[in-house]
Amino acid sequence: MKSRVILIYGVLFVIFVLVLAMLWHWQMAGNYFMSKERGIILDFLPPFAHAGVDGDFYIKPPYVVYTIWSIYLMIALLLPAVCAWLFVRLYERDLKRAW
């Protein structure tokens, strides 16, 4: 049963990271930092603005961007865990019968 919980967490983690990466790009790119050669998903991976690259710079201080990113990362790690735990708790009897 533990492998199924890990599988549920892994699937939810991928989904939440993709959704949060799109939200990050929509909210942060262009408002907090500028990066010309990155995409929607790659904007979620640090460093957000590369030093020495033309057109890459921070609009807000880097510590503000990294603080907000760390909050997004905590959400991406904790929210799938809570959802997987709730799923297992809600359907525990049915899961034991089916697995």
Would you mind describing this structure in some detail?
It is elongated, with a radius of gyration of 18 Å. It has helices at 2-27, 62-90, 92-98, and strands at residues 33-34, 57-58. The longest helix is centred in the last third of the chain and has 29 residues, at 62-90. It has one domain (2-98). The relative contact order is 0.17. The mean pLDDT is 88. The protein is mostly helical. The chain contains 3 helices and 2 strands, in the order H-E-E-H-H. It starts with a helix and ends with a helix. It has a two-stranded antiparallel sheet.
Strand and helix map with partners:
Layout lengths: L1 H26 L5 E2 L22 E2 L3 H29 L1 H7 L1
Antiparallel strand pairs: 1-2
Helix pairs in contact: 1-2
Q: Concise description?
A:
This protein has 99 residues and is mostly helical.
Q: Tell me the series of helices and strands, N- to C-terminal.
A: HEEHH
Estimated share of beta-strand residues = under 5%
Whole-number average pLDDT?
88
The backbone outline, from C-alpha atoms, is elongated
Radius of gyration from the alpha-carbon trace, in angstroms: 18 Å
What is the number of domains? 1
| Major β-sheet profile | 2 strands, antiparallel
Q: What kind of oligomer do you see?
A: single chain
Cα-to-Cα separation, first versus last residue: 7 Å
Structural class designation:
mainly alpha
Number of helices: 3
Give the total of beta strands: 2
Low-confidence spans: none
As a percent range, the share of helical residues equals: 55-70%
Looking across the biggest beta sheet, what order are the strands in?
A: 1-2
